[in-house]
Design a protein that fits this description.
This protein has 257 residues and is an alpha/beta fold. It has eleven helices and ten strands.
């Protein structure tokens, strides 16, 4: 089994959809575990970022149900199983009724000291191998873009590895934050004190890329966040993962055991 940790309901497919399709096509079992897939609180935090996101998504004041449906449909296209956890997206998390991340700037900053998500995940880290029996490889976000939810999931993967030192862990570069090469290097620099990482390029077939693009297209509520249209998304994804004439690849950073 291969387990892909996804902070949000799209991250794993955006970054690793081609690899996931390739794995399932050769008979491997793949689970996409999305951590921040919990329902938003009621009432919603009255913040600029929540208002802006809900307006762009245009799927109501409680959008998680629709986003889960999009994610399950997307996972099915690449042959994976989608699992969703109950942790709320950073933009919904509060402490004493006050939003922890009220702005776009705050979600790309440091983890708030009153954010308890990591504490609860830490409890689960010792149980990971029992929940996912037979896991061969764990894939986790590298932290490109420095989104707080990506930082939390990356650090959880590191904690899981501490409890399971023989577990193979690969960190993926989060597209579309990878548009900024400096952001990739910054994420790698933050990892240097913890792990030595080496790059691994996963070459993809045209079929893998087509499946990835079709899977991304399932996230209809999210298209406007990154692109002007679905057609613009298709062109951008092809360009972003093209490493030569009709040659495509996704890059991972591998732990040295």
């Amino acid at each position: 089994m291969h387990v892909f940790l996804s902070p949000h309901l799209d991250d794993a497919i955006l970054s690793c959809g081609g690899t996931i399709h390739q794995l399932t096509q050769r008979g491997e079992s793949v689970t996409i575990l999305t951590l921040m897939a919990g329902d938003p609180p009621n009432p919603l935090p009255d913040t600029p970022i929540v208002r802006d996101l809900h307006q762009r998504w245009a799927i109501g004041e409680s959008p998680v149900t629709t986003r889960k449906q999009e994610d399950s449909a997307s996972a099915a296209i690449v042959g994976a199983t989608a699992q969703h956890r109950e942790y709320a997206d950073s933009v919904y998390r509060t402490h004493l009724a006050l939003p922890l991340y009220p702005s776009e700037q705050s979600i790309f900053g440091e983890i708030h000291p009153n954010d308890t998500t990591s504490k609860y995940l830490s409890i689960e880290s010792t149980l990971f191998r029992f929940v996912f029996l037979g896991v061969k490889v764990l894939y986790a976000p590298l932290g490109v873009g420095h989104h707080v939810d990506h930082q939390i999931v990356r650090d959880w993967a590191l904690e899981i590895r501490q409890h399971n030192p023989t577990l193979e862990v690969k960190f993926y570069e989060e597209y579309p934050y990878t548009r900024n090469n400096e952001a990739i290097q910054n994420a790698l620099d933050l990892m240097k004190p913890r792990l030595k990482l080496k790059p691994e390029t996963q070459t993809l077939s045209a079929s893998d890329m087509n499946a990835k693009i079709e899977a991304i297209a399932c996230y209809k509520s999210q298209i406007s966040t990154f692109w002007k249209s679905e057609e613009a998304m298709r062109r951008d994804v092809e360009n972003a993962f093209c490493i030569g004439s009709s040659v495509y690849a996704e890059r991972y950073w591998h732990t040295n055991n």
